[in-house]
Amino acid sequence: MRREAELRLNDAIQAFPFEGKAVGAVRYGNGHVNDTFCLYTQLDSGEPMRYILQRINTETFKDPDGLMENIFAVTDFIAERAEANGEDPLRSTMKVYKTNDGKPYYRDEDGGCWRMYLFVDDSYFLERAENEEQFYESARAFGNFQRLLADFDASKLHETIPLFHDTRDRYKKLEMAIEKDACDRVKSVEKEIAFVRDRKDKVGQLMDMLDRDELPLRVTHNDTKLNNVLFDKDSHKAIVVIDLDTVMPGLALHDFGDSIRFGASTALEDEKDLSKVSMSLSLYEAYTRGFMETAGHALTETEIDNLPWGAYLMTFECGIRFLTDYLEGDHYFRVHRDGHNLDRARTQFKLVEDYENKWEQMQAIVNKYR
Ligand code: ADP
Ligand code: GN1
Ligand code: MG
Fold first, then answer.
1. Is residue 68 within 6 Å of ligand 1 at its C-beta?
2. Per-residue b or e along 12-30, where b marks 16 or more CB atoms closer than 10 Å to that residue's CB
3. What would the pLDDT profile of 188-215 be if each residue is shown by its tens digit?
4. Is 225 in the pocket of ligand 2 (CB under 6 A)?
5. Distance from the first to the final alpha carbon of the chain
6. Pocket flag, ligand 2, residue 255 (CB < 6 Å)
7. Which of 12, 281, 342, 355 has the greatest CB tally within 10 Å of its CB?
8. For the chain, what is the largest distance between any 2 Cα atoms, rounded to a whole number of angstroms?
9. What is the set of domains in the chain, with CATH numbers?
10. How far is the CA of 283 from the centre of ligand 2 (A)?
11. Average pLDDT, the chain
C-alpha cells in the first residue's frame, strides 16, 4: 500500500535547492499517475516563486533511475537546441533540479521518489480546448516535439513502461482481469466487455505493421493529452511539452491519436452523460492541420494513411485500460468517485463508436493536409 505523499512532503521540500524560503505546498494539476504539488517560496526581495514537486509513482515507473536519466537527457537536449536557436530554454522545456546532494531524485524514508521542476510561470494548462485555435496550437507543440526528437539518440532512452502502447497486450490484460474478476465486477460490465471483444480483430492494426517493418519506430512522447502541454498566458501559444515520463521509442501515430482521444472529444474524459460525448470533426481537423504542419513532412505515406487508426487505437486502448483497472480495483489511475474508471472507459468506447461512424470524414481530413 502506498503511503500518503503528504506525509513526506516536507522532507522532500528540504531535499531540493529551491530559492527563497518555503511558504507552503499544495496538491496541483489533474494528472492520473504521479502525486504533484506546487511549492510556493518567497525571495528576500519579497518576490514569490513556484516549483513543481512530484512524487513519482514507482508502482507505474519501476525504474526511477532510468526514468530520471531520460528526463534529464530529453530536457537538456531541448534546452540546448532552444539556446542554439536564440530561444529561451525556460519557455521551451522544463528545468529539472538535482537534490541538495547532487542526486537526480530524492528518496524518502518510505521509499517514495521525488523530483523538482521549476514552475513554468505565466503559463496555463487546459482540460478541454475552448476553441480550435488552442487545439491547433497544442498540435504544433507536440508535432514540434516529435520533430525535434527525431535527432535524439533513441538508444539513450530507457523503456520506462514496457509494452506501454501495445494494444494487443492491453487486450490480453483485460481478458486476464475478466478471468480473475478480483472485485466481482464483471457482471456489471458485460456490455462493455462485449464491445471490446467485438473489436478484438482491431487491436493489432498498428503494432502488427510495426512488427512487419511497415511503420518506423521513432522517439515519441506517448502521453500527448492536452493537459500535458503548457500555454503562454500572453501569446496563448502552446510552449512547453511536459509529463516526459513516457518518452520512449514508439509510433508517431500513437502521439497523434492520444491527442485526438482526449482533446477532440466534446466532453471531459470522465463525463457520465454519454449523450454529450462525441468527436468534434472541427477539433480533429484543427489538430490534424497543426500536426501535419510540424511533424508531417517527416511522416511516411503509410503513417499518414494510418493517422485515423492512431486515434482509433489510442482511444480503444485507453478504454480497455480504464476497464481493466476498474475490474482490478482501481489501483492504476487515481479515482475520485465510485465507478470513476468505468465512467472513463464508457466515454472512450462512445468515442470509438463515433469514429466508426465518421471514419471516411476522418480520412478525408487527413488527405486534405498531406
Ligand atoms: P502526471 O504524470 O500525474 O500526469 P504531470 O507531470 O503531467 O503528472 O503533472 C501534473 C500537472 O502538473 C500537469 O498537468 C500540469 O498542470 C502541472 N505541471 C507539471 N509540471 C509543471 C511545470 N513545470 N510547470 C507548471 N505546471 C506543471
Ligand atoms: C495517464 O499521467 P497522465 O494523467 O498524464 C496515463 C496515460 C493515459 C491517461 C488517461 C503513465 O496520463 O497513458 O492515457 O492517464 N499515463 C500513464 O487520461 O499511464
Ligand atoms: Mg500528465
1. no
2. bbebbebeeeeeebeebbe
3. 999 999 999 999 999 999 999 999 999 9
4. yes
5. 49
6. no
7. 12
8. 63
9. 2-121 (3.30.200.20), 132-368 (3.90.1200.10)
10. 21
11. 97
Q: Which ligand has the nearest atom to the CA of 320?
A: 2
C-alpha cell at 85: 536557436
pTM over 0.85: yes
User: Are 252 and 146 a contacting pair, CB within 8 Å?
Assistant: yes
Which residues are registered as beta bridge partners of 115? 54
DSSP annotation string for 245-300: GG-EEE-HHHHHHHHHHHHSBSS-TT-S-GGG--B-HHHHHHHHHHHHHHTGGGS-
Q: Which three cell numbers stand for residue 45?
A: 526581495
Quick check: helix, strand or coil at residue 315?
helix
**pLDDT tens string 155-186:** 999 999 999 999 999 999 999 999 999 999 99
pLDDT at 1: 57
**Percent of residues, the chain, with pLDDT higher than 70:** 99
Q: What's the confidence (pLDDT) of residue 344?
A: 98
Question: DSSP of 191-226, one letter per residue?
Answer: HHHHHHHHTGGGTTTTHHHHHTTSS--EEE-S---G
Establish how many alpha carbons lie within 13 A of residue 249's alpha carbon, considering only the half-sphere containing its beta carbon. 13
Q: Does residue 60's CB lie within 6 angstroms of at least one atom of ligand 2?
A: yes
Alpha-carbon distance of 251 to 218, in angstroms, equals: 6
Smallest-distance ligand from the CA of 39: 1
* Alpha carbon of 97 to ligand 1 centroid (Å): 15
Mutate-to-test residue for ligand 2 from 27, 28, 33, highest number of ligand atoms within 8 A of CB:
33
CA of residue 313 to ligand 1 center, whole Å: 25
Facing residues of 41 across strands? 22, 49
Q: What is the DSSP letter of 22?
A: E
How far is the centre of ligand 2, averaged over its atoms, from the C-alpha of 87 (Å)?
A: 30
Which atom of ligand 2 lies closest to the CA of 243? 5
Task: List the residue whose alpha carbon is closest to atom 4 of ligand 1.
Answer: 31
- Rounded to whole angstroms, the Cα distance separating 361 from 315 reads 17
